[in-house]
């Protein structure tokens, strides 16, 4: 079974600042990727960004980017220029078979 | 397309009652997933369908739980003889096989929150 570790249960960041959310995973798969999802208080899981293990460049999507360190099996999410609407719970999830396995998440609060 | 729809959004029931949740996936998506999420945890996989076939079930899916997708479109998740431990958010998601990017992105619904008294 895959093990996903998100060590930061809660984070605070000032508006307009950057924040890094950590994620490490344990997998024996040779080919794997990693998804990040955001869950605001409304409950819906929103896809943010994906990194494939064979991608040579770190994935970027607007204000979201991944700091992917394959040897360390970590894929930290960097949110630049934080906005109040970024306040939510963030989950990383490597795919395993035909499903995603989610970590426990990091609750991010963006403050003025 | 309006995305993945789930109904009802909230359900309060008494222990021992049966409840049913419905999920309408994105129309061109042939795969449908059910997840359960308890407070402070990430979503946990319950089961998934490809078209009308239920291809995988988690051990979390006890015999009181049954999921169907009879025509390969909408799906229902029924919980019989509910227990207080069933209180959770039940999330539905869908995707389709054969995407060129190699990353099948799940699109989630807003969830159905169950409270068992």
User: How confident overall, as mean pLDDT of chain A?
Assistant: 89
Gross morphology of chain B? globular
> How many DSSP H or I helices of chain A?
0
Largest sheet of chain A: 5 strands, mixed
Explained architecture:
The complex is a heterodimer of chains A (112) and B (117). With 112 residues, chain A is mainly β. In chain A, 0% of the residues lie in helices and 52% in strands. In chain A, strands 2-13-10-5-6 form a 5-stranded mixed sheet, with no helix packed on it. In chain A, strand 11 (95-96) and strand 12 (99-100) form a beta hairpin. Chain A is globular, with a radius of gyration of 13 Å. Chain A starts with a strand and ends with a strand. Chain B is globular and about 40 Å long. Chain B contains no helices and 11 strands. The mean pLDDT of chain B is 92. With 117 residues, chain B is an all-beta fold. In chain B, strand 4 (31-37) and strand 5 (44-50) form a beta hairpin. Chain B has strands at residues 5-7, 10-13, 19-24, 31-37, 44-50, 53-57, 65-68, 75-79, 88-95, 107-108, 112-116. In chain B, strands 2, 4, 5, 6, 9, 10 and 11 form a 7-stranded mixed sheet that branches. Chain B has a 4-stranded antiparallel sheet with strand order 1-3-8-7, with no helix packed on it.
Offer a quick outline of the entry.
The complex is a heterodimer of chains A (about 110) and B (about 120). With about 110 residues, chain A is an all-beta fold. Chain A has strands spanning about 5, 10-15, 20, 25, 35-40, 45-50, 60, 65-70, 75-80, 90-95, 95, 100, 105-110.
């Amino acid at each position: 079974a895959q093990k996903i570790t998100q060590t930061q249960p809660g984070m605070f960041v000032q508006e307009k600042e950057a924040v890094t959310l950590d994620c490490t995973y344990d997998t024996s798969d040779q080919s794997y990727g990693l998804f990040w999802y955001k869950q605001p208080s409304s409950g819906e899981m929103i896809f943010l960004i994906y990194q494939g293990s064979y991608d040579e460049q770190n994935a970027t999507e607007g204000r979201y980017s991944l700091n992917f360190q394959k040897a360390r099996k970590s894929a930290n999410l960097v949110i630049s220029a934080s906005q109040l609407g970024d306040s939510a719970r963030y989950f990383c999830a490597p795919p395993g078979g035909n499903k995603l396995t989610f970590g426990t998440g990091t609750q991010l609060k963006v403050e003025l | 397309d309006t995305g993945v729809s789930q109904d009802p959004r909230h359900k309060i029931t008494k222990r021992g009652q049966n409840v049913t949740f419905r999920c309408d996936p994105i129309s061109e998506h042939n795969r449908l997933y059910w997840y359960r999420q308890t407070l402070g945890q990430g979503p946990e996989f319950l089961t998934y369908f490809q078209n009308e076939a239920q291809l995988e079930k988690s051990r979390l899916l006890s015999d009181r739980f049954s999921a169907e997708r009879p025509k390969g479109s909408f799906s229902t998740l029924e919980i019989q003889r509910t227990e207080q431990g069933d209180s959770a958010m039940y999330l539905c998601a869908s995707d389709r096989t054969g995407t060129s990017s190699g990353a099948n992105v799940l699109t989630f619904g807003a969830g159905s929150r169950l409270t068992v008294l």
